[in-house]
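For the sake of transparency, this paper describes our internal protein records without simplification. The record that follows is passed on verbatim for readers who wish to inspect the format:
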Amino acid sequence: MLKPLSGEMEQKLPLFTAEQLNKFFENSYDGILVSDAEGTIIFGTPSAALCMGVKLEELVGKNVKDLVNEGRYNQSIILKAIEQRQQQSGVVSVAADGNRVFSTATPIFDEHGAISMVITNVRTDSIMEKYIQELDQIKTKNKRYRSALKYLSHLNVGTNAVIAESPKMISILNYLDRISGTSSTVLLLGESGTGKEVLSRYIHEKSNRSSEPFIPVNCAAIPKDLLESEFYGYEKGAFTGALTTGKSGFFEMADHGTLFLDEIAELPLDMQSKLLRSIELGEFQRVGGTMVIKTDVRIIAATNQNLEEMVEKGLFRKDLFYRLNVIPILIPPLRERKDDILALSKYFLNLQLSDEESEAVLNSGLSDFLLNYDWPGNIRELKNVIERVSIDYSIGEQSLERLIEILSYKPQTSPDQSIGNKVVSADREIEDLSMVENLKTHMDKLEKRYLLAVLKQCNWNIVNAAKKLEIHRSLLYRKMQALEIKKEI
């Protein structure tokens, strides 16, 4: 119950004139009606008359019971409030224009407990429906975000850093900056491990969709019979084992954002057809559903396959290829952008070690070795190698030897088989094991070859060669003696 205002507060309240009060009512967005205890309307605002589908003079002085009997309205919320002696709400249908009005009537009591008047607020139902639709959209958006967060929480997202010092990669990044502001489809091409997902995230973060979800999908990792339900979601009870609440698919989760389709070449032909339709029409249906869902998704696809050759062989749809090949970008392998190798190595080392240790590991000897290796696995292989080296890190010769060991040795294919009859050397040559007695001998040969190259580069100046290798010259002498390295005449 409202407490009466104290004398002090009453003095602070402004006093309004009748003209000012009329202005307040006339400009109220909600319609306001005032009736007496019998339901006769004694006051109304222009917005109330507009909602009720009549002129204001046709309302004032009329009893709401008569208005209902005349068929103008299907019911009166004012009468219900009078009968129940408490606030009532409901929807009133207006015969004149077929409109519906949401009405709330509140009885006002005098000091004796009798109803003195009824204050009623009215608002068209279409406005309420608009608010309900907006609320439903917010709920749908929140549900989509929750689905996206749940999906992303199960992924090993990894690092999103873009490390580029080579002219080729800097040129690519400059181009990505220009095309990021569009919604055009991008097709990233390149060998496995070249950083296609990292660049797809770069495009998304530079775009005007950056505040919306980025949904990465590995097309090769999804079982064929689950592809449609994963891409488009499903309604509750759509199939055995389906969640009772249904599930959002990748397209719903990525709405207004970016959908990254990695290994797009692995999609079967029937799924390629459905994907093409979704991209072209911007719509789809959930599995087990009948409602067409509109979606606004930017597609970034990636593959390490030659899609044009696959099209010729009938393994990839020609129409989907042309739909994806809007902005093709070829990402060069690591061996063609050697300027990035050391920058990436230092970055990965900083993820594993302290800054001081990182600088110690990347001595000139190690740097040269990293630069001269072919890196068939590209950035992924470099990251894994650096991580393995950092685990048993020690300064100088042991770091170099450990790196040579990692890049030279390939594990046996199964527990009951020998290593095989071949091993891959650091310079990518294939040698018969009959020429190598054991791993240490093989590593010694590699180290001897490397030390010879450094000594020749330094014109056999032991002091300069030791500085380049960042080892003491006495250690270099011992290695030369142990490996039988002699100056060539």
About this structure: The chain is about 45% helix and 15% strand. The first helix runs from residue 7 to 12.
